[in-house]
Amino acid sequence: MTGEFDLIRRYFWDASSLRDDVVTGIGDDCAVLAPPLGMELVVSTDTLVEGVHFPEGTHPSDVGYKALAVNLSDLAAMGADPAWFLLNLTLPRADAEWLSGFSKGLLQLARDYHIALVGGDTTRGPLSVTITVHGFVPQGGAIRRRGARPGDVVYVTGFLGQAILGLKCWRREIDLPEEFLPGALDRFLRPAPRLDEARVLRGLASAAIDLSDGLAADLGHLLEASEVGARVWLERLPVSPAYDSVFGSMGWDPVLAGGDDYELCFTLPPEQRRAFHGRFVDFSCGFAEIGEIEAEPGLRLIGAGGSPYALACPGYDHFAGS
Question: What is the pLDDT of residue 8?
């Protein structure tokens, strides 16, 4: 019989040795960690549940990769560098093949971003993954949601709506041209946390948030925290050629509210635009100016010809309609 500690040693032990600032990692009652001088600790946690955050039948390596990636995206939104993470894993049974795939996907991303697994828990029950990430920012350097001011420019990185395309293809709800299918599925199953890009924003961005529940909902959170509003032009939203190929049947709503994009939405004071453009030019994900912060609260979406656009659903909500 394979016990809890056997599972930890077999599949996750090596991930504790990825950093020198881990004094004591996996295997004790608590981790002992050594934060660097002059840095502030940034902490976030997310839970992924089978059938809610990833479909049943998702390959375990994709589950492991995505579970860590969505947490790293939260660190990126704050401009933080990743350091350590905790893993709480609930499994219906001790399945060696599933755990092998899960750990490979998880540890691949951990190595890419030099983040060490330092503890957690394993339990029996419906499949879910909870990860808590810890990162560092220079003292006073965290980018928050509440700093946007009237006149600031609103930006997003990458393309919007790619992940919802991947999900709809997975569910066989749409037919995507063959050349676009792998990219859409990959964007849904393996989002790319914008950590390198976020470092560029430190000292420049007035506010930022990552896009997990859709642009409309998440930008709305930023606006509420900053006590401002914004005007966003739909024609400026960055959509991929894949999305263009099905735009006629899908329209703007999935771009605005589909969720799972894990791009960054951020605001810049006008005087920082030149510096930002100069620093960001080397990043392949790209960026787009989509709107402007205004004093009047609320998000105003502007469609073709300058007419207001009414969004049917503002974004993903776990308890909507409960």
Answer: 66
